[in-house]
Write a structure and sequence with these properties.
Helix content is 46%, strand content 4%. It is mainly alpha-helical. It has a two-stranded antiparallel sheet. A hairpin with a 2-residue loop joins strand 1 and strand 2. Helix 4 crosses helix 6. The two termini are 30 Å apart.
């Protein structure tokens, strides 16, 4: 019965910009839902490099050191970013005039970009952790559900998937994956009921696909 429950929804892979989420209704029952991988590149946003000193001029703090460009550039060069972090062009367009107003060199502006990149990475990590925890909570609730969980959980999941395969659309599959809804106990409860009703409407059905014409003949001539 566990092998039956491991059947997956036959739908094309979905490109959501992140990794798709395996749920109870479209992934292995034992697999926890997962969120998209988050970039772990580190950017140095602390202090000034060794051997440099900070002096204060009319245009603000300017880093002075051997080989450093002390003048405010007319156009800032491309800023480096940690792997996995994308540059917000609109935010940068707003920030550049502020960099110039503060009299920031290329190096100083880069430090602010590094700081912002770290905030973005931290926000992504927190969001991913929160999503993973939500998926785990929903799966636990589903497995312990008094109606369809417990010892017959795998069997009921297989029935629910039968309903998804029979009546679901690619859009439904995308919803189940993108938002992890396939782990929610109420979604599973609904699909289990649909799957059971479908089986009851087909004499002798065991949850697999059936031919309506063959079923009608079997009902009229059970010993045929």
């Amino acid at each position: 019965m566990a092998e039956e429950a491991a059947a997956t929804l036959n739908a094309p892979a979905l490109d959501t910009g992140d990794a798709a989420t395996d749920t109870l209704l479209n992934g292995a029952p034992g697999a926890k839902g997962s969120a998209a991988p988050v970039a772990t590149g580190e950017a140095d946003a602390t202090g000034t490099p060794g051997g440099e000193e900070t002096v204060t001029g009319e245009t603000g703090d300017v880093t002075a050191g051997s080989g450093d460009e002390r003048a405010v550039p007319e156009t800032y060069a491309d800023f480096s970013l940690p792997e996995g972090v994308e540059l917000d062009a609109q935010l940068l367009e707003t920030a550049v005039p502020v960099f110039k107003e503060l009299g920031l060199t290329q190096e100083q502006a880069q430090k602010l970009v590094d700081f912002q990149a770290k905030q973005v990475e931290e926000g992504q990590r927190k969001q991913a952790d929160a999503f993973s925890q939500l998926m785990e909570d929903w799966q636990t609730q589903s497995r312990n559900d008094k109606e369809f969980g417990g010892e017959k959980f795998d069997e009921n999941i297989a029935i629910a998937r039968t309903a998804v395969n029979a009546f679901g659309t690619p859009e439904l599959a995308k919803l189940l994956e993108d938002h992890g809804v396939g782990n929610h106990p109420e979604m599973i409860r609904f699909m289990v009921k649909v799957g059971k009703l479908t089986r009851e409407d087909r004499p002798g059905a065991t949850g697999g696909a059936s031919n309506p014409a063959v079923d009608r003949v079997s009902a009229l001539y059970p010993n045929g």
